[in-house]
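Two entries, shown back to back:
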Amino acid sequence: MVHTEICMEPREKEDEQIVADIMRRRFFPAVLTHKAWEGFHFAGHEIKITEATDSYGAVVWPSALVLCYFLETNSKQYNLVDKNVIEIGAGTGLVSIVASLLGACVTATDLPELLGNLQHNVLQNTKLKCKHQPCAKELSWGVDLEKNFPRSSCHFDYIMAADVVYHHPFLDELLLTFDHLCQNDTVILWAMKFRLEKENQFVDRFQTLFDLEIIFDFPSLNITLYKAMRKGRMQSDTPNGLSEEEIPKDGSFSCL
């Protein structure tokens, strides 16, 4: 069963307001260039992301914007300063860049064919701007996990993932990767867009290993933002039993 934190599903108006605010963070070049790029405003910085249309992993998807917005607007509750963070399926690197700008020590990972563009984006947007310079590292889900990320020496405070579940044949390997990287006190922040029944099936399987809470839900985008930890390790961020009157109604994207 999926639990919901105190910042329950936003009403339709709140959903529209927050989604509009998220999408306003994106901007496009005034003049077309030979390389496709998009711009974003997060964590007090202008971020330019180089994209490629020939790969799912080289495009910024809305789930990444949702996760970035959450990290920025909840930086007190989810304080990333000096925290070890790994992003799986980092793609263009936007989430990793925002986490780095918020003070985290970040490892951005993806497939080898995406690593060049990922490294370019991360370096371009974080050099001399971050407390910890992030790194980009190859990670093929389920492959050589103990060799490349030994559990004895690789401890991550947060695992971040945006839109890693879609129509691909590596869902078993993805679950294995979550399982390997997540230790008892690791928090998973995972934004997912629901498209097909496979997404629901993966969530069910995910919950055999992890406790799962809905942090926020965006019906207009079909995107849900989850927080997860190993079974039995989750502690609620808020007291149980708050009434509807105690839930904020100002459209703010935060949990009490």
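entry 2 starts here
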Amino acid sequence: MALTFCCLTFAVDPASLQDFCVADSNSQACKNPAWVQANDFSFSGLHNPGNTGNPFGSAITPVTVAQIPALNTLGISLVRIDYAPWGVVVPHYHPRATEIITVIEGSLEVGFVTSNPDNRLISKTLQKGDVFVFPVGLVHFQRNVGHMNAVTISGLNSQNPGVITIGNAVFGSKPDISTDILAKAFQVDKNIVQQIQGKF
């Protein structure tokens, strides 16, 4: 008895097969390369401080494919974050990106939490010029620990990294997650859950 094996081979070109694919706001396709302009590749205003006059004391200025259409398919984006003294970027995660943050001005406490079952907090205080990495999908935060304003620039390895803030997702979902579920999850009374949900 003879055995015969056959196999198929698939090859993938990891590099782009075109120079760029500028997002066309009028369709789901790329803009015709002949119509592409320099403005499709640029963004102005990152030098302007964001308004930190909000309950969190922080302001995020994104530069994603929504601001620069040429980022489409390139897998990168960045954000400027301004922090008032003791301002925070609340615990959140990016479902589609790792983030690398650089402190431009000020002092920042940063940290992320590893996945279950350890849930280990890895944190550090950063100074001007320091860099820190938040791995994709892990809950992380930033807080200005100085008495002056702080500024950071973050690079993300996605044109649209997404952001899910933990408080908004858990207590501000539409429709609400059942108070029974949240009371059990957080081991608190339902009235406390309803009170928190009322803030969102």
